[in-house]
Design brief:
alpha/beta, Rossmann fold, 6-stranded parallel β-sheet, 14 helices
């Protein structure tokens, strides 16, 4: 008898928060449900990947309430820091770990924090019957945690089609857009340093992303912005909903993502769908997400190289136009969310 098409999906915190990881979780669940899967969503407390005792106790109660034999997809933000709970239920639950990027690769961790996260992730992943990652680049990162490659499947995020990207404005001041939570890993400080050397060009920078998830980094960035003389050029928009985000993409001239690591780079894929030239780093999966013809890749953390790439595109409208054409062509090759959900479903169906 075929196994029923049902699973639980464990999500830490509020999956309506506008981050790439939460959007992935939400859209995959929506896609599974649309094709007849029965999905039980299990929402854990806030605070992961550093949960307090109350959050851990809440997670324990919720996991204990899941039926024996159920496929349980757990977002790596929680899965990787609950090894004892995962191992305790490893024989009765069919764990599927969803790893957007390994937690121990986060930028700015202290040595002991990194070691603890790596150890916990490795222990938890040993109990996963299947591991889903969002890019080919992350396969190697997960395999380095002693997970056999045969148990790792790649399910790239989908992209919503933008039928007719808005024509870019012919104004003297070009709009740069960066969509990323204000955390150390996203490299905003490098971007500000790079732009400090381009004050002779006409541009403004629009930063879309939460300033509350890492308040210390957000405060540091604002101070750096003022110290570099960029306060009148940089606009901080915080978290925005999907409608406002689409509006930001529509009026941008150039997209930039200076991350130190990305498990995929959904914001880059969305920028391509909107026909934007992209300047990004070569970190993690970004070289796989951004075709060379659609922009520029620079070494992560290299403000000089980032400045040169931005200067080249800001100063040359013909080059920006050529990259925009390549971006739209690349977007047509990206999977839709329906295709991503179908691929995820095929992985679930093979979980032993």
């Amino acid at each position: 008898m075929p196994l029923p098409r049902e699973c639980a999906f464990v999500v830490p915190g509020d999956w309506n928060a506008p981050t790439g990881g939460y959007r992935y979780d939400r859209r995959i669940v929506e896609g599974l449900c649309a094709t007849g899967w029965r999905v039980e969503t299990v929402f854990l407390s806030e605070g992961f990947p550093w949960p307090d005792a109350a959050a851990c106790d809440d997670a324990r109660r919720r996991i204990e309430g899941l039926a024996d034999g159920l496929r349980v997809v757990a977002d790596g933000l929680a899965f990787g820091v609950l090894p004892q709970l995962v191992l305790q239920h490893g024989s009765r639950l069919r764990w599927v770990a969803l790893v957007h990027h390994p937690l121990h690769l986060e930028t700015g961790l202290e040595m002991m924090q990194r070691a603890r996260l790596r150890q916990d992730e490795q222990r938890a992943l040993s109990a996963a019957r299947q591991v889903v990652v969002t890019s080919r680049a992350t396969v190697a990162d997960v395999a380095a945690l002693s997970v056999p490659p045969a148990r790792i499947a790649v399910v790239e995020p989908g992209t919503d089609a933008v039928a007719h990207p808005a024509p870019h404005r012919r104004e003297a001041t070009l709009q740069l857009l960066c969509v990323a939570t204000l955390t150390a890993r996203k490299g905003h400080s490098v971007l500000l340093e790079a732009l400090a050397g381009l004050k002779h060009l006409q541009w403004s920078l629009h930063l879309v992303g939460s300033a509350t998830r890492d308040p210390a980094t957000a405060q540091h960035l604002r101070k750096a912005c003022t110290a570099l003389g960029l306060a009148d050029r940089v606009h901080w928009h915080g978290e925005v909903d999907e409608t406002d985000l689409a509006a930001h993409y529509a009026v941008a001239d150039l997209f930039v993502l200076p991350s130190y690591h990305e498990g995929y780079g959904m914001a880059v894929a969305e920028a391509l769908a909107h026909g934007l030239p992209v300047v990004a780093t070569d970190a993690g999966a970004l070289p796989q997400t951004l075709p060379r013809a659609a922009g520029r890749l620079v070494p992560a953390g290299d403000a000089v190289a980032l400045r040169a790439a931005l200067r080249a595109l800001l100063a040359d409208p013909r080059e920006r136009a050529a990259c925009a054409l390549a971006a739209r062509a690349a977007a047509r090759q990206q999977p839709t969310w329906a295709q991503a959900a179908a691929r995820f479903a095929s992985v679930l169906e093979t979980v032993p």
